[in-house]
Amino acid sequence: MDFKARTATLEGFHGLLVSVEGGLGIATARALAEPAELALGASCPLVLDLSKCSFIDWMGLPFVLRAHEALAEVGEAMALVTDHALIRKMLFLTGIDRSVRIFKTRDTAIAWAGSQKAKVPGGEAPSLSAVANGDR
């Protein structure tokens, strides 16, 4: 399956939805930096929908964690959507599931992310280009 990332805003959700198809690895994690930076710049939550993601590798996992950390620094939420057993296992084995909320359905993730209020006052958003490149 070819990699595709689609970015959308949804009525009633002041956040950004990024849907991934294909694998999330070294080349594709960098492609997600731009939409993730949009969420940082707009000071809004990010829902990363991996429900059509076929795999996540050693480079995709740190991107997920660093994107979450960058959003948390400016008080914004991030949620993941996946029901893929192997991806959930990777998130569990690496401990990412302890800091990033993971949901089985997109609707549940959007509802949770939309209910989160900014908990950290202001602050400059870190660059996710640096995050995707591992410079952070």
Strand content: 25-35%
Query: Could you name the CATH homologous superfamily?
Result: STAS domain
Radius of gyration: 13 Å
Task: Supply the number of helical segments.
Answer: 6
The strand order across the widest sheet is: 1-2-3-4-5
User: In CATH, what is the class?
Assistant: Alpha Beta
Give the CA-CA distance, first to last residue. Answer: 30 Å
How many domains? The number is 1
Relevant terms:
Transcription Regulator spoIIAA; five-stranded mixed sheet; globular; disordered C terminus; 136 residues; alpha/beta
Could you describe the 3D structure shown?
The protein has 136 residues and is of the alpha/beta class. The chain has one domain (4-132): 2-Layer Sandwich (Transcription Regulator spoIIAA), CATH 3.30.750. Helices cover 39% and strands 27% of the residues. The protein has six helices and five strands; from the N terminus they run ββααβαβαβαα. It has helices at 26-31, 33-41, 60-73, 85-93, 106-115, 128-132, and strands spanning 4-10, 13-24, 46-56, 78-81, 101-103. It has a five-stranded mixed beta sheet, with helices on both faces.
Annotate the secondary structure layout.
Layout: E1 4-10, E2 13-24, H1 26-31, H2 33-41, E3 46-56, H3 60-73, E4 78-81, H4 85-93, E5 101-103, H5 106-115, H6 128-132
Parallel strand pairs: 2-3, 3-4, 4-5
Antiparallel strand pairs: 1-2
